[in-house]
Every structure is written in C-alpha cells, then in structure tokens.
Design brief:
heterotrimer; A alpha/beta (about 250); B alpha/beta (about 190); C alpha/beta (about 450); A: about 250 residues; alpha/beta; 2 domains; 4-stranded parallel beta sheet; about 50% helix; C: about 450 residues; 4-stranded mixed beta sheet; 22 helices
C-alpha cells in the first residue's frame, strides 16, 4: 500500500472541491493511504507561465514543506503536475526538490502505471467527449500525440473505457488546445474564447452529454463558454467519472 | 576588422562546444520492393504523367509529326549528334512549346528526377518551356533521396535540379493550379528497353 | 504597453466566418503534413538526424562557413558578408547600382523580408518585382506576407481577384484561381525574361561543395536566376549544412513538413554561375551570432522555415500572420523576433498557450514552446511586461506563499462572488466575463470540507 500525498490545485480547492473529493475517494477505494497536507496552496505556475518564475520562490518552499517524504504525490491536473516536474527548485533543499519532482504523478497516470488499474467498477451511463489537455498529453505523455509518427495509446481513455455504460467519443481534432493557457485566457481573450468555442463545437456535433478531461482549468474555460450559450453540455473532471458509482 | 572577420569572430565566440555529427544508418529506411510502381505513382501525385517506352523510335515519329504542325520543339534526347542546340536567349526560349531532356536519376519515393546542366543545353530551358518531357532509363530509379544523393554528385556541373512534376502553385486559397510560371505539363518517359 | 498581438488578434476575430476559414484551411495543410509524415515509418528518426546535424553544424559554424566560402569562391561565386539588415541592403544595392540596373526580380526570401529590402531598394529608385505568386499578390496590395510558405493565406480569392483587376486588368468578378494564376503567369514571365538581375533566397548551403540549394514549386527562383545576368542569393548564415549527403535528410523533411508534398517541384542546386553570368552570395548575421550565444535560444537557428509550426498553431490559425507584426510570424517567429528587438516583440512569446504542438511538428526538433516560456522569463526580467501585470503577479505570489493568507483570500473571494457577483461580472473590467460565465463559488473549499471530515 502506498502513502500518497494528494496535491490539490489551488483553483480546484477553491472552486471545484468535488474534483478533489472524488480524487481522494477514488484513491482510498483503490487502497491508498491518502495524506492531504493542509498548508498546500499553489504550485506557482500562474506566475511562472507569465514570465515571473522568479517570484515562485515562496510557493516552491511551501510545496516542499507540504509534500516531503511521501511515496507519491498525486495530482488531478496534468498542468500543475508538469509545472512541479519541470520547475520546482530549491536552493535550500535541492535534494528534497529533486525527490518531489520525481514523485509527483498525474492522477490518471498514477492509476494506469503505478496502481495498474484495469477493472474499475464505476458506472457512468452517458455519452462523454474527452478533452486531452496539452500539458498532460504533450508534457506528461499521457497519450500519443497526433503530430508524432508513433503507436496510439491513451491513459485517460483506457480508464474511461473501463467504466460501465460510458460511451466515449473523441473529436476529430483529438488533441487541439482549448485555449485556456493560464493568463492567456484573459490577456488574449479573443483567441482564447475562439479556441474554446471551436473545441465545444466539435463535442456538440458529437452530441456528447459531458466533456471530460484531466485538467479542470481547461474544463473551467469550456464551462464558462458553455454556460454563456446555455448549452446542455456539461463538463466533468475525469476523477468524478472514475469515482462515480464505484462502491 | 572586415565584416567577414567581425562576423566570424562573433560566431567563434558564441558557438557551443562541439557536438558530434550523427552517423546516418540508412537501414532504418524500409526497403522499397517495386521502384517503378512507386515512381509512377508519385509522378502522378505531383501532377506529371508517366509513359513507358520500349525504345525511342516511336517517339521520333511523334516529334516529326508535331514539328510538321508548326510546334516549336527542342529535342535533347536520343542521338547526341542530332541534339538541338539551345538558344542562350531567354526571350527566344519563351516560345518553346515543348522541350525533351534527359534525366539521370529518378526517385521512387517522390517522383523527382535529377537533371544536369548539360542535359538542358541552357539552364532555363526546363523552366521556361510550355511543356516538359524528361526521359529516364528504368534502371536509373532509386528508392529515396538518400540513395539519390549517393548516386549523383551535386557539383559535377555548375547547376543541377530535381524536378518533380510541372510548375505549380496553391497561393490562391490553397487551390492547386498546375502551371505557375514554368511548364504546364510534365511527361516522364521511362525507357524500359523492352 | 498592452499586447499588440492580442489587439490585432481581436480585430482578426471580429470576422468569425473568415477566422473559421483561415483556421480550417491551415488545419487542412497540417493534415496533409500528417499524412506525408505517417507514410514514412522512419519519420521520427529523420527528425532526430536533422536536429543532430543542425546541432553539430551550429557547434562548428565557424569552420563550416570558412569552408563554404572557400568552395564558393573557387566555384567563381562572389561572397559578401553583412553584419546587419542595413548592410545587407547596401551590399545588394551597390551590386545593382554598379551594373546600372533599374528593375529586378526577386523570388521568395524571408531574409529579405526581415531586412525590409524591398522598401530600401524602392527608396533608391529600384523597381522590385516579387515573383512568388503569393508574394506578388501581397506586394500589389502593399501588405506584408502573413505566412512564410503561403504568403497570401490571409486573403480570399475574391480579394485576389480585386487586386488583379486593379493591377493586371483581369476581368472584374472572375475569381477562378486557375484564371488568376494564368494572368500572373503571363505578367511574370514577361518580367523574368526582361530582368537583368534576380535575387533568390537559399534553403540550404553545402559547406563541402560551396553550393546553394533553392526549393520552389512555381519555378520562379529558377526563372529569375537563369534569365538574369546577375544572380544574388541571400542567406542567413545558419542555412549552412556540412555535406551533400545531408540534403537527403532535409529534402525528405522540408516539403512534407511544409505542405505535405513528397518534395518541392524544383530542388535547384546552384554551384557556378553560367558562362557570362555573375553570381553573388550574401551571408547575413543580423542578430544571429547574438542568438547563437544565447544558450537557451540558440537552437532556434536550426529552423529550416517549413512553417509546420504555423499550420499547427491553434493561436496562429485564429489570429493570422499579421497579428505577429514581424516578417516571420507564428511560433518560430515568436522565439526569433525577441532576439532582433526585444522591446518591440515583447508581446510575442505570450501569444501562445504553450500547448507544445509546434515542438512536435518541427522537423528539426526545436523546443519552441519551451523557448517561448524562457523568453517570457527574460522579458519580465528585462522589465518589459506591463507594470500592472507585474504588481498583480507580486501580489499573487505573496498570497500563495502564505497558507493562512491563501485560505483567507480564497474564502473571501468566494463569499464576494456568492453575495456580490456583479463585482466580477463586468465585461469591461473582466476579460474572462466578456464571453464566458464565471464558475460557481462554493460555500466550502476542499480544505474546509476535509477538515470537517477529519473531525467527524
């Protein structure tokens, strides 16, 4: 049994607590001992991606204090995981930072590669579209990429396919960016929204009930557009689906 | 310090420590079984046409017939003694209806044909003629560009070119138009010697 | 200093149907590229070779340039060196002037765009005719190319029809691409045969032979160069490759990456001028040696200008080349241009979601999206980001470094959003809200929920 630290992205903590709850419950159901460090805040990505990695010192220190000494650090976000993997540094505790960078794992990858889950007992009788978030896919290699000449695989899809009743539909542009992009979503508002609308159009044409994915940030952006147009399509984090109906 | 020395010394100061030149192991490139089929497929794909010929005699008859109809042809294939001289004046060549030239290597993976300057008579000929015909011997086909560059010597003459299909453009709304500035048609004659 | 890219992109998006068309047309080019790449099982190995050859070349550039120069000279070519754009333009003008020529033709060369050669020569009274069809179209319209391979991709055939009607007297309202291309053919063939001097770009320069390779589909580089009595080829010095053998790798990658063609129609190898002809090669630095010295950014010099990163970029497809306000747009432009002028191009590294698709399609494996991230750091360190953004980031960093402050700020923000949502619901002040609803603000954060669970 692994002792796993649950790394909850700050915006999930504040705005999408159900995603963290689902992640926690799912990991516990799968036999992990889950630790939730209560002084965690943010990985520091918003500053770093805006050109202010120099300001992320405080976040880095805080992260190390919260997540030192665990078997794995699991996060229901490809983007935050990637940020820690690539950019967590500490001049004070370089070894701890190194160790954390190696131990941080995105949730779906943890399920497929570490726990090697192949028979999830969940039920979710709906038509679902998958949004591959870029940092999870291209950054963490969670699925094969349409640009590369390489065999197909998809860690999130392989998990969703284990859920009874779930009909998975992929858009034609299976790995095009949704346009969220961190602060890009406000500084480049026009292009950001257009990219989101175009992703949504494909999912709507596929008549899905839900759009899911491994990053709530992409889904929050898509949800904002969906709600503005009063669409019936909802967004749901992959942890919520995998945890649904799992007794 | 001259510009040259100034730039070169800036480069010397900026370039990183030497990185190795990779060894290109072409065994990763799949072996192509049927060069001619692939070559013909790609010539078509790039907008050209392939004609298989047993020998050149039939061609000579066609040439004579066309010339009788008043078409301006330049023949640079067949008997070297009978080859047409090519004007060095571009304006004069603009009126050429069709030029026949000899290619030295054909590439099966893309339909490209290597043509040396000597085969053209004038470098501009294969570009300025209205239609181009290139003759290639069937046993001069190679699989890929790797093979092609092994076979040719790029600086054997002052100029040489790979030609793949007729001149083309898609600069207006990505609509493919054959015949941009150069030839509006390319025929590749593959000489099979029976 | 708000982002020029963002405001130009917003303007581009004001015509949604046209934005859709632009996106779909370039996506189609990307799909053609995918098909061509997937036809070669060795594709990823080719990319690795190309990348390694370029890495090696950049690490030995001094020697290769000297070798290239020696071989070119012995081929009878005149070699010039230009430190910057101004010098490049002056060298070319002096060659033109010495020959007593007033009209020249030029095939596509992004370097001459980078150096604004056309403008320079026009001020000296020289008539320059761009001969690439797309470039001729934008030249008539007094616009810049919006794409390095497809210069007129921002235009519809109706636009071209109007332009040609005005300049070439084509039938008004006839926008058949075949018809319009034919009109350009007649117009440009006349220019080719009457021009005494032709400028071309260079795709590859081979050190071991001193030759240059130029790739086109239209044949315009060849028409110009072979008709003229003077041929000037302009190249950034990073175009060098060590050996002829390496052309096998690059010619297999270039056209497939660019347009999905198995090879360009013409791959022309120039070594010696033809008898009676003069041939010049201008080797240009213009910031390249500075970029070579930037460890994080030097491998941007591996670029072979295929534009695959443009076609795959979801931002480029939806903002158009002109929103990048530079000669080379798109993701690669966004990592090259800050080197040329960091202040003027400080917005460009931010014109990306860092999705990473550019890096994956790059035939020479430039880590474009990582360099975009790194440029952001350099630009903010140089103080070139908006002060308000900097203050916002400092505040955010302060809050997020202190767990108690973070919790307090979070619950306060959620309370405000629940009770006074109008604070955030301003389309004017909150760009998020312009076209998106805000997420619901729950009563309880995850941490608050978890604390309760621990107690129960």
């Amino acid at each position: 049994m692994y002792t796993v630290g649950l790394f909850v992205p700050c915006y999930v903590d504040q705005f999408y607590p159900q995603v963290a709850i689902a992640s926690l419950q799912l990991l516990e159901k799968l036999g992990c001992k889950v630790v939730v460090p209560m002084n965690q805040t943010c990985c520091g990505q918003p500053m770093a991606n805006s050109g202010f990695a120099s300001l992320s010192y405080g976040c880095d220190q805080n992260f190390i204090q919260n997540f030192d000494g665990l078997d794995f650090i699991v996060c229901p976000s490809g983007s935050c995981t990637l940020h820690i993997k690539e950019h967590l540094h500490s001049t004070q505790y370089p070894n701890k930072a190194d160790s954390i960078r190696r131990k941080v794992v995105e949730l779906t990858e943890f399920l497929t590669d570490i726990l090697q889950v192949n028979q999830l007992k969940g039920k979710f009788p709906h038509k679902v579209g998958l949004h591959n978030s870029c940092h999870g896919q291209r950054g963490l290699n969670l699925s094969s990429m349409s640009e590369l000449v390489a065999p197909y695989f998809s860690k999130p899809a392989s998990l969703l396919q284990q859920i009874s009743g779930l009909e998975l539909v992929l858009p034609d542009r299976s790995d095009e960016c949704c346009g969220f992009g961190g602060t890009f979503c406000v500084f480049e508002e026009a292009v950001s929204v257009k990219m989101g609308k175009d992703r949504i159009r494909e999912h709507e044409e596929n008549q899905v009930e839900f759009i899911t994915g491994g990053d709530m940030s992409c889904l929050m952006h898509l949800q904002g557009i969906l709600k503005r147009k009063n669409s019936k399509v909802q967004v749901i984090h992959i942890a919520e689906i995998l945890n649904a109906g799992y007794e | 310090m001259s510009n040259r020395d100034h730039i070169l010394s800036a480069i010397k100061a900026s370039q990183p420590a030497l990185r190795p030149l990779p060894i290109l192991d072409y065994s990763v490139v799949p072996v192509m079984a049927d060069l001619l089929t692939s070559f013909a497929h790609f010539v078509n794909m790039v907008g050209g046409q392939v004609r298989l010929l047993d020998d050149l005699s039939m061609l000579n008859e066609e040439l004579e017939a066309e010339q009788k109809q008043g078409r301006l042809l330049i023949n640079r294939i067949g008997d070297p003694a009978k080859m047409d001289e090519v004007s060095q004046n571009a304006v004069a060549l603009e009126a050429v209806d069709r030029a026949y030239i000899k290619g030295s290597i054909g590439v099966a993976e893309n339909g490209a044909i290597w043509v040396n300057e000597t085969a053209m008579g004038n470098r501009i000929l294969p570009f300025i003629c209205q239609e181009l015909v290139i003759l290639i011997e069937a046993d001069k086909l190679v699989a890929t560009m790797h093979d092609a560059y092994r076979e040719i010597q790029i600086n054997q003459e002052g100029f040489g070119v790979f030609i793949a299909g007729p001149s083309k453009t898609a600069d207006i709304e990505q609509s493919l138009v054959i015949g941009a500035h150069g030839p509006v048609a390319l025929t590749v004659l593959v000489l099979t010697h029976g | 200093m708000s982002s020029q890219h963002a405001s130009l992109a917003e303007k581009f998006n004001s015509d949604e149907a046209r934005t859709n068309w632009h996106d779909q047309t370039l996506w189609w080019v990307r799909q053609k590229r995918d098909r061509a790449a997937n036809a070669l099982p060795e594709w990823e190995q080719l990319r690795q070779w190309a990348s390694d050859i370029k890495d090696h070349t950049l690490s030995n550039l001094y020697n290769y340039l000297v070798e290239f120069e020696q071989n070119a000279l012995s081929n009878g070519v005149k070699v010039h060196w230009a430190s910057d754009a101004e010098e490049h333009n002056r060298i070319i003008h002096s060659i033109i002037q010495e020959a007593g020529i007033r009209k020249i033709v030029k095939s596509k060369s992004m370097l001459t765009e980078e150096c604004h050669l056309n403008f320079y020569l026009q001020t000296k009274g020289i008539e320059v005719v761009d001969t690439d069809l797309g470039e001729r179209i934008v030249q008539f319209r007094e616009e810049a190319p919006s794409h390095i391979v497809l210069p007129a991709i921002h235009l519809k055939k109706e636009d071209v029809s109007d332009t040609f009607h005005e300049h070439l007297n084509t039938e008004k309202g006839n926008f058949d691409p075949q018809y319009l291309t034919h009109a350009a053919r007649i117009h440009l063939r006349e220019k080719f045969v009457s021009s005494e001097l032709a400028i071309t770009g260079v795709n590859f320069a081979v050190a071991e032979t001193g030759g240059i390779v130029v790739c086109t589909n239209e044949g315009n580089a060849d028409m110009g160069a072979h008709a003229a009595r003077i041929h000037i080829a302009c190249m950034g010095f990073e175009k060098i490759i060590p050996k002829a053998e390496h052309l096998g790798v690059f010619t297999r990658l270039l056209a497939r990456s660019a347009t999905g063609q198995p090879i360009t129609t013409y791959t022309s190898h120039f070594h010696c001028p033809r008898p009676g002809q003069e041939m010049h090669i201008v080797l240009v630095d213009n910031g390249r040696s500075r970029q070579l010295g930037r460890e994080d950014f030097r491998n941007s010099l591996k670029c072979i200008r295929c534009a695959a990163c443009f076609n795959t970029c979801p931002v480029y497809r939806r903002s158009g080349g002109h929103s990048y306000h530079t000669a080379v747009a798109g993701p690669i432009g966004s990592i090259l241009n800050p080197n040329l002028d960091m202040k003027a191009n400080a917005d460009l590294p931010f014109a990306s979601t860092l999705c990473g698709s550019c890096t994956n399609v790059c035939p020479v494996k430039i880590n474009i999206h990582e360099q975009l991230w790194k440029w952001r750091q350099v630009i903010s360190a140089e103080g070139l980001t908006e002060p308000s953004k900097k203050i916002g980031m400092q505040l955010m960093a302060w809050i997020l470094a202190k767990p108690a402050v973070y919790r307090m700020a979070g619950s306060t923000a959620r309370w405000v959003l629940r009770n006074f949502p109008s604070v955030a619901k301003s389309k004017r002040w909150n760009p998020w809200y312009k076209q998106r609803e805000l997420p619901d603000a729950p009563e309880e954060s995850f941490q608050e929920w978890y604390k309760k669970r621990q107690r129960s």
